Structures are given as C-alpha cells and as structure tokens.
Amino acid sequence: MAIKTDIAVIGASPAGLMAARYAALGGAKVMLLEKKEEIGKDPHPANSVYKGMMDITGEKVDPSYVVHNLKGMKIISPSGHKIKVKTPGYALDKGAFDRFYEQKALAAGVEIKTGTEVVNLNRKDSGVVLKTSSENSDVTDRVKAKVVIIADGILSKNAQMAGLQTMKHPEDIAWGTELTIRSPGIGEADFADYFVGSHAPGWKSTYLPRGGDEAAIGVYVRHFGQDISSFTDSWIARFKDLKGISDDEFEIVERKSAGDPIVTIPGQTYTDNIMVAGGAAGQSGIGYAMHAGQIAGKVGAMAIAKGDYSARTLSKYRSDWRSSLYTEHVFGRLGLEALRKMEDDEIDELFEVFEDEDVSSLIKGNTVNQGLSVLSLMLQKKPSSLLKAGVLFRNK
Asked: The FAD-binding domain covers which part of the protein (predicted)?
C-alpha cells in the first residue's frame, strides 16, 4: 500500500528544500525524498552567493554557514582588464547551508526521508505514484502524491520520466571542476575573481577566497563535453603563476565536478500533477533556484487547496517565474553566447570600455549567477560593442 501525501518533493537541493518548506507553509502535507543518507553531506560544489541573489528570496544570510565575507567581485579579461563590482557576497560552507534550510523545512512541518531514491514515476488516478528504494533495504516502497515537485539536479532522470524537456538548450550546460585549495594567506582577499576568455570557453575560471589559508578555484566550460581536465590543469598552473604560489605552498584539499545550466533557459517545467525546479529545470544559481522552489511550493499548495492539480492550474508556476526571472536569463544567455564567440582581443576591447566605470550602482538587486549580470549590463548598455563585429551572428 502506498504512503499518501499531498505534495512529494524529489531532491533536497536549495530549490527542493524551499519548495517543500513553502508548500508546507501553504497548508499542504509535504514529504521530501532525498537519495543521500544525510542532507549536507558531499554537497554540490556551488560555494558562494551574493546579496542580490538572496534578496530575491527574502531570506537573510545566516552567519552559521558563512566562512568568509566578500566586498564584491572582479571580472577579469584575458589581458587583465578588471571590472570591479562592489556587492556584498559570502563564501559558503555548503553543507552547513543545506542543513540550515533542512531545519527550516522541518520546522514548517515537512516530513523528510533521506536515503530514499525515486526509481520510477507514474501518473495514476489524478495523482503520481513514486516507486522508491533504499540502500539499507531490499524493499521497494511507493509514495502517492497529488503534486510532485522534481528538484534533483541537472541530470534528473525523474524529469525525463515525466516526459519533460526542461531545458531549451541542454547542450549549453557548463561542465566544471571546483577545487578547494590551501596556500599561505590565499583566503584573505575581499573580492572574488572571475576570469573570462579562451582559457575557459563559454564561461569562466574562478578564485573565491574562503578565509585564512583556504580558497576555492574552478573552471567552467561550454561546448567541450564533461571531461574538462585539460582546462582545469591549465587553470591550476596559471593561477599559481598569477598569485606567485610555489608548488610546495599549494595543496589541493578537495576536487568536485558538476554541471551548471547557466544559459540553458528553462523549457517545459510543468505538466499535470508535476513541476520541476532548480538545476533540473535549467534554473542556475543558488538564489535563483531557491526562488524558483519558493514559487513552485506556493503554487503546489494553492493547487492542493483548490483540489485541482491540472497543468492549467500549475501553469501559474511558469507565469510567476517568467515575470520574476525570465528576462535576466535571456539577457544572460545573449551575453555569454557573445562572450563565447568573441576572440580574446575583442573581449579585452569590450572590458576597456567599462574598466573605469562603477557598474555597482547599475545592479539593483536581482543579479544573475555571480558576475553574469555584468555581462548582461554590457549588452544592454553598449550593444554596439558587441554588434559592430557581428558577434552574435557568428557560426561558432
């Protein structure tokens, strides 16, 4: 016999935790299913958030999961031109971050089942039946929900089982490697650095100070497949040279790989009884994914209250998301696609236009994943700098 609930949320991602919490706050009976045995263990490598990204969620940043406070970010061109953006940011203990929002979900009344993987999904009798399995049991259980919110990341098999093409441009996932490193004083800087150009085609390489002798460095690349080891190795060597770090003062503590759906643009994110949020829906960035989860949770609770779980009712999720975030995703895609198609000298020329300008005042609150808003501003404020060379129309 199936366990019954109003709403089942698949995945304890930032989007999933927020969806579950807001659905419960809206009066629904909610069950959150997470395949990991412990939330916060072996977390996703996303490791920073900026104030503007959190502002859209209405959530206050809590010191319990912050390891280092930032004054902002620097976006750096291939030859070293810098655009400084002063905006409060935070390097995160991502495991502590996840556990913090787990407790918020529990306090709202969410039932959380860890070590539980959804292995099959079927719509039946105005609901969805989920077959689940556990590493600690050979028994396959079933959960029947009126509404299911899928929030289990970019490689979501559940979204595929639901028959949804959740990303318009899945080929544009940025595959990346994030390294936690140690070196004397490397974590003491006040600004994060984001480097763009041919060394990281289509996106960025990064330096995030984490306080004291610890930092995170990473590289994210588009259109080169999931194996980006050559780009990672090159970035490690270049980073040590930029910072003057000798081999005997450089230690790699941890290495993680993941995908970032930064410019994939959400596609089909709902159908009868089902919504998809976060990375599984192509909604990139911690703050943006959390906000999408909030919207999905609220719409799910509204559907339960109405007793109508049809696609027509759940379409409010898409319309509310589009009115809040769609424009920035589109401009972000245009900006990054232009960047991907530009030569390094063209990027340098573009950065020279903005190098001495304070763009901080142009960012009002809603910021795309980290420094992407700056690229969007470039496109909006001075499109001629991109269009004069026909960058957007290059077949590349």
From this structure: 4-175
